[in-house]
Amino acid sequence: MLSKSKIFFKGIVAVLPHMLSVIPFGIITGAIGIELGFDPILVYATSLIIFGGASQIIFMQLLSGGASSLVAITSVGVINSRHLLYGAVLSEYLEKLSFIKKLFISYFIVDQGFAESNKYIKQNKNLSNPHYYILGTGITLWFCWQLSTISGIILGSFIPEELGLKFAIPLTFLAIIVNDIRKLDHVFVMLVSGFASLILFNAPFKSYIILSPIVALIAAFIMLRFKK
Amino acid sequence: MTWFSIIVSGIVTYFSRMAMVALIDREMLGTKVKEVLNYVPAAVFPAIIFPGVFFNDFGLFVEITDPKIYGAIVALVVGFYSRSVIATIVSGLLSYWFIIFFLLR
């Protein structure tokens, strides 16, 4: 039987390889926030309060581009709706915990932590305290994310505008989904979303950022019906 | 107003993490919904990538020879073969900088 601290430590070790992508992503997020003209404290607040890299960048990009709060908040919600899926999977392992503990652990549910926890817990079905593994991954990622966005905020004030760092935004998101390009069904959904965003780009209130994913998800839904 | 947006976004995001764990019975999410949620990244991120590459700062289509298009193609190829997040971003930025600082001067 593994002790709680051992399980926690295993979680920490499991996400360490992900630091190679999390730390540069955090630095870019902080630096882009400064580049877009936000106050350093506001940029950091997104890391602490929203704590979701992709959504933080889009949030700041939209607000700096003149989008309304409603559009910015809604797009954060759309992007982060994937957590519902993670929560649905993890809830099975967290059932026995008290409500307060569930509320606490929830804050630390992130992409890489979910992926590693789910893999490990599935392989070790008899684990008595699987939530320590989830916490090990989540808290490690949390600390690295906070520190790397702060580094990015500091670096951002030194980066000259001529470098066109804003181009790092599409590149970062390309990096996130580039692995899915091997899957044809995902490529189909990506192309629908991409072309929809080009067509809808001039729709009022920057609503293309919400409308395009909706169009693409409807396409995904229709595609799933035909696949069966 | 920005603070307000950050806090509401934070609440929305926290809710997305917490809802299925603490509030809703996970059976409420049918298999269909779960299948569609799988495509959220594929549905969301191209809507940021495409305009970021194909539009300029004024919301107009860039020319087909724009450095951003070359940068994106390099990043796509490097990312596909390396499967590395950093290699994708760095190769895209470096090729973009190479074009704007060396070729276009």
Describe this structure in words.
The complex is a heterodimer of chains A (228) and B (105). Chain A has twelve helices and no strands. Chain A is an all-alpha fold and 228 residues long. In chain A, α4 runs antiparallel to α5 and α6 (82-94) runs parallel beside α8 (111-123). With 105 residues, chain B is an all-alpha fold. Chain B has two domains: 1-35, no CATH class; 39-105, no CATH class. Chain B has helices spanning 2-23, 31-37, 40-44, 46-54, 67-82, 85-103. Chain B is elongated, with a radius of gyration of 20 Å. The model of chain B has no long low-confidence stretch (mean pLDDT 91). The chains are: A mainly alpha (228), B mainly alpha (105). At the A-B interface, α2, α3, α4, α5 and α6 of A face α1, α2, α3, α4 and α5 of B.
Number of strands of chain A: 0
Basic shape of chain A: globular
Q: Identify the quaternary structure here.
A: heterodimer
Unreliable spans of chain A are: none
Largest interface: A-B, 90 and 64 residues
Helix proportion of chain A: over 70%
Q: Order of SSEs of chain B, N→C? A: HHHHHH
What summary fits the major beta sheet of chain B?
none
Low-confidence stretches of chain B: none
Percentage of residues assigned to helices of chain B: over 70%
The helix count of chain B comes to 6
**Head-to-tail CA distance between termini of chain A:** 43 Å
Estimate the mean pLDDT confidence of chain B. Answer: 91
* Overall tally of structural domains of chain B: 2
* Main sheet summary of chain A: none
